[in-house]
Write a structure and sequence with these properties.
The protein is mostly helical.
């Protein structure tokens, strides 16, 4: 009998044991992190420690880290909470991006499903300083991987999958 090989890690993947253990430990903690009693303060310490660790991983400050229940909530928070004057989304975005971004400018993709970076670079030449761009980096259904275009305003790579935050992943990362 052959062993199956799972190839859809862009959609969902196994949780690392260390991460699973941390989540289980936090879930076994009784206490509202907003309460002032000892169990609440303990829960708050666990939450703030996690926030600091994530911030360190992505080069942010802890106050910029917001935990959500999943991708749809995170996308809605980013798209509806940003309140940018202009929003650009690629035509291959997940519905959790396309629905809250209704009315956004649509960025075309090639016949291979790759974002047309030249078009995005032209769109970013506009003088509008507050532009939210949502670009799916790796498509979980087709495997297409988009390149990071250069922003003419900042001369830094526009990081697919990020919101107003430059990529701080190692140079070995494909988006670097």
């Amino acid at each position: 009998m052959s062993k199956a090989i799972y190839m859809d890690h862009n959609a969902t993947t196994a949780v690392r044991p260390k991460a699973r253990d941390a989540v289980l430990m936090a879930m076994e903690t009784i206490g509202n992190a907003s309460s002032v009693h000892e169990p609440g303060r303990h829960a708050r310490r666990i939450l703030e420690d996690a926030r600091e660790r994530v911030a360190a991983l992505v080069g942010a400050t802890p106050d910029r880290i917001v935990f959500t229940s999943g991708g749809t909530e995170a996308n809605n928070l980013a798209l509806r909470g940003m309140r940018s004057k202009r929003t650009i989304v690629s035509s291959i975005e997940h519905p959790s991006v396309l629905v809250p971004a209704s009315g956004a400018e649509i960025l075309p993709v090639s016949s291979d499903g790759i974002v047309e970076t030249k078009t995005l670079e032209k769109l970013l030449r506009d003088e509008e300083p507050e532009t939210l761009v949502s670009v799916m980096y790796a498509n979980n259904e087709t495997g297409a991987v988009s390149r990071s275009p250069k922003s003419p305003r900042s001369s830094k790579a526009v990081t697919p999958g990020s919101i107003a935050m430059p990529c701080r992943l190692p140079a070995s990362c494909p988006c670097a």
